[in-house]
Amino acid sequence: MNSVRRTIIGITGGSGSGKSTLLRGLRAAFGEETVCIVSQDEYYRKREDQVRDEAGFQNFDVPDALDLEGFVSDLQKLRVGDTVERVKYVFNCEIEKPPPIIYKSAPVIIAEGLFLAGVPPVRELLDYSIFVHAREDLKLIRRIKRDQTERNYALEEILYRYEHHVIPCYESYIKREYERADMVINNNGDIRKGIRLLKAVVNDFL
Fold it and tell me: Which of 160, 148, 139, 141 is nearest to 59 (CA)?
């Protein structure tokens, strides 16, 4: 641990807006000694602890679905130079043995997820906030591709979750952050422009 204060940049936006693609571009541009990327996807509570809706589907698109206390605690540790270890969260693939994830503190810490600036304990940690915006049709297409290939969901279930979980989540917790963000990155086309903007922000803090 040391007394150097790291910068925390928050990146939020609706499901399918392109946050993960932006972060892949960021990882390609900076080494882990410069940028540490922490995603809320690794902080979901156990599947058996998730609240189910009236149709019996677990709802991962509400703040209670995540261990936000752990997320805040880990960001605080990273800010003062500590290293954090977690077990990777695996969606809908329970037979897979999750590998460990090691977060090493760095001068710039990227906090990515759905519930950032809208959650006071998280918002208080952010030095800069970025909102990733995309058209609703594009977000749905991206969500379908991701959930079929990465999370093993059937199309019918994806569409149900999008209508009953994703859209209400966006309206209740995420949409309002568009006006509050320090920067908005539009991702309706070529994501390379967004990656360049994000790299410029990181370089400014470095």
Answer: 160
pTM assigned to the model: 0.90
Q: List the structure tokens of 143.
A: 């969500």
Give the pairing type, strands 108-112 and 7-13.
parallel
Q: Which two tokens stand for residue 51?
A: 């609240």
The structural domains of the chain, ordered by start, are 7-205 (3.40.50.300)
Neighbour count for residue 196 (Cβ, 10 Å): 12
The structure tokens listed for 85 are 């270890």
pLDDT profile of the chain (206 residues), mean per 10: 79 93 92 94 89 92 94 96 90 68 96 90 94 94 89 90 95 91 91 91 92
The 3 state secondary structure assigned to 59-116 is CCCCHHHECHHHHHHHHHHHHCCCCEEEECCCCCCCCCCCCEEEECCCCEEEEECCCC
Distance CA 50, CA 65 (A): 6
